[in-house]
Design goal:
The complex is a heterodimer of chains A (288) and B (232). By secondary structure, chain A is α/β, with parallel strands linked by helices. Chain A contains ten helices and ten strands. Chain B has ten helices and two strands. Chain B has helices at 9-43, 49-59, 64-75, 90-114, 118-126, 131-141, 143-158, 162-168, 183-193, 196-223, and strands at 3-4, 7-8. The chains are: A alpha/beta (288), B mainly alpha (232). The A-B interface holds A 82, 84, 108, 111-112, 115-118, 120-127, 134-135, 138-139, 179-185, 188, 192, 195-196, 199 and B 117, 119-120, 122-130, 133, 137, 140-141, 224-232.
Chain lengths: 288, 232
């Protein structure tokens, strides 16, 4: 597990790497997993910088909580990590690949090792099963996709084992045939996470996945995060919920004003933070 | 030729066939041209985009007789398309109806494409979709709006009178079969001649066709999943 402090260099490691990452090859999936790292990221949108000099990494088999108040740049950071856009400064690396130095076809292959679920409702207007299988379908050759579409006109097939497994992870397999539009917000978020999990990514990015959800759905999503971690997936969670970060994460990075000001094992960051602003923030005394 | 009362069925059937052929071909052509335009404009931000969308919207109000006149000039012997010898043929009518239907189709489908939330495009991208996959997803999400665009374009085409009268010539052969006479142009002719029964029959067929096409669209909308809103 690694969470870099700004200026920690390009190794992805920081002085606070006390805990040992699980063996990436021992995730039970039969293949090694990959880390995701950001080095010296800076980004802005015209009105000045949103992110400045952020370095962090999430390793296989860990949950990294990226905490900070709303509007501090967590979503922008996660969009950069998911390769939605190129950062103004710094690099994003998946394994040993600097993703923006790769040719487009290779970057697509790398991007497909990273799954993401969003804060907002983002299910497609179709069934739960088709939502979850979307990532699998787009990875198939066009000939297979056309054949499946034609076969789909003549009858419905049973959900694949992969889809079933992803839906069971979030406790939604009983609703596999439901229309996605009929799901509650919490159910929809669980399906969105199943969609991100179905292609068996190496990295799972979750941007405020439980904001405004009830405790039951929140618990189901936290359970899915732990299950993903246990499968060796590197899970990064953006949240402003301090209690959730403490409950589920192995490491925590604190972002204030677009900069990562402290990172390390979650217990240490919450119980004895090095930075005074972090101490006040985790104690709820730093109001934004 | 055979009749049913005072109605000439050969006449009615051939006119209906010409109307269906011309309007369906025009809408198919409009869709082939218009949907890529909608996607291109809807997906990209570029300088002058608002001007382009304004021009497209303005096109919905093109007076059909003006379009007919322009097509007439273009297809006439001395016009730029005169060598194709299309004037007073169904194909000339298809061309003029395409010009009339295209702005309607582009404008309504563009609105549908732009109404697909950015969150869904992001979700498709994050799930590993390429730009083509994201575009297909947007088309799928906008399918109800696109069907509405097709229906609106069909309605504009099949109910059109002025331009098809100018470029088609409203021609009927001596055996009462239509060459370029459509339901709308036939109604004007029959009403002017005082053949009210025939005019009413033609009007009923026209309304039935429009109703049938809209019923097909409604059936498509009702049968597809994902229509139960975005939350409960």
């Amino acid at each position: 597990m690694t969470t870099e402090r700004p200026g920690a260099g390009d190794t992805g490691a920081s002085e606070s790497d006390e805990t040992t990452a699980p063996d990436p090859a021992s995730n039970g999936t039969g293949r090694g997993r990959t880390r995701l790292a950001a080095h010296d990221l800076g980004h802005g949108f015209g009105n000045g910088a949103v992110l400045e000099d952020i370095s962090l990494a999430v390793e296989p088999g860990e949950i990294l909580a990226v905490v900070g108040p709303s509007g501090t740049g967590k979503t922008t950071l996660f969009r950069l990590l998911a390769m939605f856009e190129r950062p103004d400064e710094g690099t994003v690396e998946v394994g040993d690949d600097d993703v923006w130095a790769l040719p487009e076809a290779r970057r697509l292959a790398v991007r497909r090792r990273v799954g993401m679920a969003f804060q907002t409702r983002s299910l497609f207007s179709t069934t739960v099963e088709e939502n979850v299988s979307y990532g699998l379908r787009v990875r198939r050759p066009w000939s297979a996709r056309v054949r499946e579409a034609v076969e789909g006109l003549f009858g419905r097939e049973e959900p694949s084992e992969t889809v079933e497994d992803a839906l069971r992870t979030v406790g939604m397999f009983d609703k596999v045939d439901r229309d996605a539009g009929s799901l509650s917000a919490g159910e929809a978020q669980r399906v969105a996470i199943a969609r991100a999990l179905a292609p068996d990514p190496d990295v799972l990015l979750l941007d405020e996945p439980t904001s405004n959800l009830d405790p039951r759905n929140t618990a189901a999503i936290e359970s899915a995060m732990r299950a993903a971690r246990d499968r060796g997936i590197a899970v990064a969670l953006a949240t402003h919920d301090m209690q959730q970060a403490r409950r589920v994460s192995d490491r925590t990075a604190v972002i204030l004003d677009g900069t990562c000001i402290e990172s390390g094992p979650t217990a240490r960051v919450f119980e004895s933070p090095n930075d005074d602003r972090v101490r006040r923030f985790v104690e709820g005394k730093l109001v934004y | 030729m055979f009749g049913l009362g005072d109605l000439n069925l050969t006449y009615l059937v051939s006119i209906t066939a010409v109307s269906l052929y011309v309007s369906t071909a025009a809408v198919a052509l409009s869709a082939a041209l218009g949907l890529p335009i909608s996607l291109a404009v809807g997906f990209r931000d570029f300088y002058g985009k608002s001007v382009v969308t304004s021009i497209i919207s303005t096109g919905m109000g093109f007076p059909s007789v003006v379009v007919g006149l322009v097509v007439l000039l273009a297809l006439s012997r001395s016009g730029p398309l005169g060598t194709f010898d299309l004037l007073f043929t169904p194909e000339a009518m298809i061309l003029s109806q395409t010009i009339l239907a295209l702005p309607v189709l582009v404008s309504v489908s563009l609105s549908a494409v732009q109404s697909v939330p950015q969150d869904l495009r992001d979700a498709a991208f994050a799930a590993g979709g390429t730009s083509t996959d994201v575009a297909l997803l947007v088309v799928r999400e906008a399918r109800y709006g696109i069907v509405t665009a097709l229906l609106a374009a069909y309605g504009r085409a099949i109910s059109e009178v002025g331009s098809v009268l100018i470029v088609g010539g409203n021609i009927v052969f001596s055996d009462s079969t239509s060459f370029t006479r459509t339901l709308t142009t036939a109604i004007t002719v029959e009403a002017r001649k005082g053949n009210i029964e025939t005019g009413i029959a033609l009007g009923a067929i026209l309304l039935a066709l429009v109703l049938g096409v809209n019923a097909l669209g409604a059936r498509f909308r009702d049968r597809t999943p994902g229509r139960n809103g975005r939350g409960r």
